[in-house]
Write a structure and sequence with these properties.
The protein is α+β, with helices and mostly antiparallel strands. It has helices at about 25-30, 35-45, 95-105, 105-130, 155-160, 165-175, 190-210; strands spanning about 10-15, 20, 55-60, 65-70, 80-85, 85-95, 140-145, 150, 180, 185-190. The protein folds into two domains: about 5-130, no CATH class; about 140-210. The chain is about 40% helix and about 20% strand.
Length: about 230
C-alpha cells in the first residue's frame, strides 16, 4: 500500500462481533476538507445513516481515557462538537466507513475501502475462533449497549477462575474491550469469549499434569541393536 495514507495507523474497534471505526480519524486520514463536525453531520443527513445502527456517538472528557456512550436524545450543542465538557466522537460501522471512503472518489478512499474489507474478513475469522458456546455465560451480570452485549468484569473473572485484580493490566493490552458503566467495569462479549477459551486451556494443562500413568512405565529391558 502507498505510504503516508495513514492506512497502517488506522485503529479499528472490536465491539462484540462488529468492527467500528473512529470517524474523526477517518476524516483526518481521508483529508476530507470540511471540519469534522460538518463533514460527519452532512454525510449522515445526505446518505440517511442511522444512529444505533450505522454509527454510535461517544463522549470523551479531555485528559480522561474513559469513554461514555451518548444517548440518542442528547444532541451536541457547540460548533466544535463539545457537550458538557466532553468531545463528541462518532464510532461508525465498517460498512459506513467503506461507504464514506468511496465517497471521496480518489485513490486514498479506494485504498481505505480495500483495507476495511480485508480487516472485516480477518475479524470474522477471529470471531469464529473466539466465540464462546451459546449460554456459557448464562446468569452472569451483563448490559446491552447499542445492541452489543457487555459482561461485568469481576463476576465473569470469578466464574472463569481468574483473579479480577488483573483489570488494569488487561486494560493496557485490550483497551477497546473495556467499558465503565457507573462504578462497574464491563468487557465485550468477544473478550469474554477469549478469556473463556484461555481458561479451558489452563484447566486442560492442570488436568494433564495431575494425571497418573495408565500403564506401567517399565516395559522391560532395552532392545539390543545388532
Amino acid at each position: 500500500m502507498e505510504k503516508n495514507t495513514g492506512i497502517e495507523l488506522m485503529p479499528l474497534i472490536q465491539n462484540g462481533d462488529e468492527i467500528l471505526v473512529d470517524a474523526r480519524l477517518l476524516h483526518k486520514f481521508l483529508k476530507a476538507g470540511k471540519d469534522f463536525r460538518h463533514w460527519i453531520m452532512d454525510r449522515i443527513k445526505d446518505y440517511n445513516f442511522e444512529e444505533g445502527k450505522d454509527f454510535f456517538r461517544t463522549g470523551n472528557t479531555p485528559g480522561s481515557k474513559t469513554t461514555q456512550v451518548i444517548p440518542k436524545h442528547e444532541k451536541q450543542t457547540s460548533q466544535k462538537g463539545i457537550k458538557n465538557g466532553m468531545q463528541i466522537d462518532y464510532h461508525i460501522t465498517i460498512d459506513m466507513a467503506k461507504e464514506l471512503a468511496m465517497l471521496q472518489q480518489n485513490e486514498t478512499g479506494r485504498l481505505f475501502r480495500r483495507y476495511f474489507i480485508q480487516k472485516e474478513k480477518e475479524a470474522r475469522d477471529v470471531n469464529k475462533f473466539i466465540a464462546p458456546p451459546s449460554n456459557v455465560f448464562a446468569g452472569l451480570p451483563k448490559e446491552s449497549i447499542n445492541g452489543h452485549t457487555l459482561y461485568q468484569f469481576a463476576p465473569l473473572m470469578k466464574y472463569l477462575g481468574y483473579n479480577s485484580d488483573t483489570a488494569d493490566a488487561r486494560k493496557k493490552n485490550y483497551p477497546n474491550h473495556f467499558m465503565k458503566i457507573g462504578n462497574l467495569l464491563f468487557i465485550t462479549e468477544a473478550y469474554a469469549g477469549h478469556l473463556f477459551k484461555s481458561s479451558i486451556i489452563l484447566k486442560s494443562r492442570r488436568a494433564i499434569k495431575a494425571m497418573q500413568p495408565v500403564l506401567s512405565l517399565d516395559f522391560g529391558a532395552p532392545i539390543g541393536i545388532k
